[in-house]
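Because discrete structure vocabularies remain unfamiliar, we turn briefly to a single example record, giving the amino acid sequence and backbone structure tokens:
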Amino acid sequence: MAILSGCRALPRGFGPGTVYNTRAMFPYDATLAAAVRTPAQFFADVLRIIQTIADTCIDGDGLKWFNWLYQQVTQAVAAREASGGFADTTWLGELDVRFARLYFGALESELSGQRAPGCWRALFERRGQTAARSAQQRLPFE
């Protein structure tokens, strides 16, 4: 299979010979971009966007597994908050939304052809590497 300059092949499962631009690695990237385009305002927005990403990404997309971990942590924090485990729930809710905006904003930048901040690039540049999936399967969660 020929790899064109500025392009890379999708992970196995997308069909032999399929080549996409590195900025649009998966055919559903436009769906992801639409999901994160409007900044989250409330914790419910964060949960909805995380779930949309989870429902959209395939197993061969490393973003799915980062999002899965992010979702697990977010849900654990929400459960602890609901049980009275944090003294300042207002501050924690604001922190949740602000961090989610960083994640979703970086994803939106990457998907819209802009360059995401450096700390996020490692995730986005390796979305097609299935090693992320096998690493997730070895984690002691669930």
Remarks:
- The chain has six helices and two strands.
- Confidence is low (pLDDT under 50) at residues 1-22.
